[in-house]
Design a protein that fits this description.
Blueprint lengths: L7 E8 L4 E7 L6 E2 L1 E4 L7 H13 L11 E11 L14 E10 L13 E8 H7 L3 H16 L1
Parallel strand pairs: 1-6
Antiparallel strand pairs: 1-4, 2-3, 2-7, 5-6
Length: 153
Amino acid sequence: MTGFKIPESVLVVVHRVDLLVLLMERADRPGFWQSVTGSRHALDEPLRETARRELFEETGIAANDSSGPNLVDWNFSQTYEIYPHWRHRYAPGVTENVEHVFSICVSHDTPILLSSREHTRFQWLPYRDAAERCFSWSNAEMIRQLPARFRLG
């Protein structure tokens, strides 16, 4: 293990049936609001497992394919340039990340247990407002696509 992050990650859009979207404020960047995100721990870690792990670590929500809310794999990925202030986390010369998108619909009474190491607070916003609040264009774009994706799912 080199200690560098793998430049392949997941984005998990957490929402309710009424299309309120969960956003969390980053602990290391006040004012930066986002959905659940995180990198693979190993090259052979399945993306669904990465999404499940990050969702639980960041929110306390346990996705379970048999008895709990299900993760929906959008079978979509996008490549974006890593913000310069986070490039030190990656191997020298790595400037892009591939992000795979998932979503999960939770009930209105689902408790949110933030990881204080990663986030300071959370809020539920209508999807349009959530998209506007996100600092990441890729996160915002996926939230904007939520109504069409949710109806199809």
